[in-house]
Amino acid sequence: MRRLRILHVTTSDRFAGVEQFIRRLATIQAADGHDVLVAGGDPAMMAGPLREAGVPFAPSASFGQALTAIRSADVDVVNAHMTSADLAAIAASLVTRPSPALVSTRHFALRRGSTGPGAAYRLAERMLDAEIAISDAVAESIRVASTVVHPGVDPVDDAGLIRARSVLMAQRLQPEKSTADGIRAFAASGIAADGWRLDIAGSGPDEQHLRRLVEERGLADHVRFLGFRDDLPHLMQAAGMLLATSPFEHFGLTVVESMASGLPVVATDAGGHAEMLRDLDGAALFAPGDEQGAAALLRTLAADAPRRAALAQAQRRRQRERFTLRGQAGATELVYRRAIERRRAR
Questions:
Q1: Mean pLDDT along residues 178-199
Q2: Which of 39, 197, 281, 313 has the most CB atoms in a 10 Å sphere around its CB?
Q3: Any idea of the CA torsion for 71, 68, 28, 144, to the nearest 10 degrees?
Q4: Domain for residue 122, yes or no?
Q5: 36 in helix, strand or coil?
Q6: Of 30, 18, 20, residue with least CA distance to 7
Q7: Secondary structure (3-state) at 315
Q8: How far is CA 102 from CA 3, 36, 305, 316, 331, in A?
């Protein structure tokens, strides 16, 4: 098959989950021989790694910058990420001939126009050639036809790793992530008395509240706030368990990265977490907000090293079967090629 010319575009100057998704996918697409461009995301985190992969980068923090990037690119397909980028791609297609295929990747379980002019968004959706949902949970919520393509990661060789007696939480410190539930669950588990600690990697507006909660629970000597970290793979290779408390994740990249790292995961039984783990032998899932349920799982796993190892092995097998970067790239390319044919037929 002929190589494709691909533009990934978002309207952002940040480096969060969407931008990480773009950087990872663009890199493997370039390695597959496609000509790939990226517009949007934090230049400090995007430009260097993408340049090493042979992928040009352009800032795109606004609708106008996204529109300029799209109109300047000679590509077969524009893969837009987030609604503002979708609208920029659609606007560009109205004045560009021939117009590239327009593909939107849906990262969140929300219908377009949930807080805006819904009728206008319905019209815009008809101008897209394909939509990709990152999970079944997203596909079921967006109320348009989509193809589910799960994000993937590369497997990690965990041979010889020595894991600490630590529980890792890696998430933004915002109310919707329910980090406080994790602190209370760790306290209730009693495993601090057995030498376990809680490491919290992330930053956000909840940090001071969470620090006060740690003090109130008498855990100051057993909880570390690590701040924002760009070395999560290293932390995952050193930790003993991952605790994921978000009541609903649209997918849950941290969980799939932990699965790849052989790090046993204790997570909420909802959204993307459930999609990845629910039918897995020995899965350690608890109802959102059930601090005692989470505490019981932490206590059981902390006391049973063979069970932790078995869970890690089962999770690693699942990741290698269903959530690989190679599988994501292949499935995405199929969507692109169908979208290109659909655009040509219009």
A1: 98
A2: 39
A3: -80
A4: yes
A5: strand
A6: 30
A7: helix
A8: 17, 15, 49, 34, 16
Q: What is the pLDDT of residues 102-157, one digit of tens each?
A: 999 999 998 887 666 667 788 888 999 999 999 999 999 999 999 999 999 988 88
DSSP 8-state assignment for residue 97: S
3-state secondary structure of 301: helix
Alpha helices in the chain (DSSP H): 17-31, 43-52, 63-72, 83-93, 118-125, 136-142, 179-189, 207-216, 232-238, 253-261, 271-277, 291-302, 305-322, 325-345
Contact 50, 24 (CB under 8 A): no
Clarify whether residues 207 and 129 are in a common domain: no
In the block, which residue shows the tokens 């690590």? 226
Q: What is the pLDDT of residue 114?
A: 66
Length of the chain (residues): 346
Residues 38 and 87 in one domain: yes
User: Which candidate, 306, 304, 323, 303, places its Cα nearest to that of 315?
Assistant: 323
User: 43-52 and 17-31 helices cross at what angle (nearest 10)?
Assistant: 10
Contact call for residues 83 and 110 (beta carbons, < 8 A)? no
Mean pLDDT (whole number) for 239-259: 95
Tokens of 198: 């809680």
Domain range holding 116? 5-152+324-345
Burial class of residue 231, CB neighbours in 10 A (0-12, 13-18, 19+): exposed
Same domain, 146 and 183: no
pLDDT of residue 112: 86
Give 103's DSSP letter. E
Indicate whether 175 pLDDT > 90. Answer: yes
Q: How many domains does the chain have?
A: 2
Mean pLDDT of the chain: 94
Q: What are phi and psi of 61, to 5 degrees?
A: -100, 5
Alpha carbon 329 to its chain centroid, in Å, reads: 15
pLDDT of 16-26, one tens digit each?
889 999 999 99
